[in-house]
Amino acid sequence: MMYPTHYACSSCQEKFQFQFRDAMYYVGPVPAVRQVGFDDLLSVNLRPGWCKDCACLCVVEDILPVRAFEDAYGAARSGRQVDYPALTFYSDTSEAVKEVRDYLRWRMARIHPARALCCGRSRYQLMDLAQPILKHDGCEYGFIEPWYQVSGYNGPGPGVGRPANIRLFDAKGILIGQLTWRKDDERMWDIEPLQYPPLIVDD
């Protein structure tokens, strides 16, 4: 399924943008300080959501039960293609097995439920459902619905000509930084530290 570019109110057309659309887990053996290796990263599977604490459009971790990861690992080992937790269509069998095994190890250690990655909390409503069930509070009649825009890009990829600024999370879904500059010759990313913003509670 194609990921929405943004969301908008069906009545007043107010637009709601994602703060970011890509994220990575750091699963390395030592704390991430200034750099992380390519092999210590896993892409975060994401779904669009609405954070009830931040009142904003966000991305939410897409974490299926352990059984789904076990089934994917078995499929990869038998040479079949997998589309969750990783896309293996362009990987050979050994690469696919390693990647899915890394995800399985991560999932078996993960206890906390899926987080809204704007703040790290779990009070959210998923937005990729069949019915537009989120009413726009600022409009009398509107619902917040997905919009799609297709565009092309031909370039060196993120982190080369300019900082990638891809959000980086630990294995528990806690924000620890962002990937900035990619160093292919060293198979490393430079990172910049980040933390979740504090929750502001109205008196």
Describe it for me?
The chain has 203 residues and is an alpha+beta fold. It has a domain at 71-109. Helix content is 14%, strand content 27%. The chain is built from two helices and twelve strands; from the N terminus they run βββββββααβββββ. The chain has a six-stranded mixed β-sheet with strand order 4-12-11-10-3-5. A three-stranded antiparallel β-sheet has the order 2-1-9, with no helix packed on it. β6 and β7 (56-61) form a beta hairpin. The protein starts with 5 loop residues before the first strand and ends in a 10-residue tail after the last strand.
Record the SSE blueprint.
Elements lengths: L5 E4 L5 E2 L6 E4 L8 E3 L3 E3 L2 E6 L4 E6 L4 H12 L15 H17 L14 E3 L17 E4 L18 E5 L4 E9 L4 E6 L10
Parallel strand pairs: 3-10
Antiparallel strand pairs: 1-2, 1-9, 3-5, 4-12, 6-7, 6-8, 10-11, 11-12
Helix pairs in contact: 1-2
Summarize this structure as a short list of keywords or feature phrases.
203 residues, alpha+beta, 6-stranded mixed β-sheet, 3-stranded antiparallel β-sheet, 27% strand
Query: How would you characterize the largest beta sheet?
Result: 6 strands, mixed
Shape type: globular
The end-to-end span amounts to: 41 Å
Given helix and strand content, the structural type is alpha+beta
Q: How many beta strands in the DSSP annotation?
A: 12
Mean pLDDT reading:
89
Uncertain regions: pLDDT < 50 for 5+ in a row? none
Number of helices: 2
User: Rg, please?
Assistant: 18 Å
- Strand composition percent: 25-35%
